[in-house]
Amino acid sequence: MTLKKIKILSGINSHNIPRDVIDSAEPVVFKGVVDDWPVVQTGRISDRASVDYLKSFYNGTPTIVCKIPAQNKGRMFYNENCTELNYESFKGYIDATLDAILEGVDELDGPAYYIASNIISTHLPGFSDSNNLVIPRDKHPEALNERVSIWIGAATTATCHFDAMDNIACCIAGKRRFTLFPPDQISNLYPGPLDPTPGGQVISLVDFEQPDFKKFPRFRDALLTAQVADL
Known about the structure:
Layout: E1 4-5, E2 8-9, H1 19-23, E3 29-30, H2 38-43, H3 47-55, E4 63-68, E5 75-76, E6 88-92, H4 94-103, E7 112-119, H5 120-123, E8 149-153, E9 157-158, E10 177-180, H6 219-223, E11 227-230
Parallel strand pairs: 1-11, 2-3, 5-9
Antiparallel strand pairs: 4-6, 4-7, 7-8, 10-11
């Protein structure tokens, strides 16, 4: 099935994001919006240059690292009876994980590593001085502060879930694919158990790469509404 592509807007940079787009409830891709970021320009030189740039800001603060066995093909999910997660999580470090990712690029039978949602200010202070977005919206006095985070990983798959906050995802190196569904499709995505979960949010039980339509027949209806963005 061919999924509907999310609307693409070009000619927008990190300082002229349209207010009306931010205020809307529809997904959109800003093509090249972070082209002017030094981290993006560095990443175009080489993977090693990208890693070295990130490491230059790292202050050594520990983080949670996910180690995904090779047989999972990068997918963070449950075991067969949904009682445990199918990967290991441990306290580690960003610089060592970046090196492990580089070392494993050409290893087909090695584990995949993933670091989720590390707050920039606590782990990479100074990074946002030259790599930042100006988001045109009013800030309500009771609203939460913007959370600026970084996700780092090799070829991994974060299973379909729901985020409570609005998101602007910037792909600074490599590739990312997002598959989005409207909220009324939740039951057709077959949410899993409340505990455990990979990131605190309930995830879909459907494997999008190899969906089992006999086990999850309503997923066909969800696909009719799906939109996809490749960054």
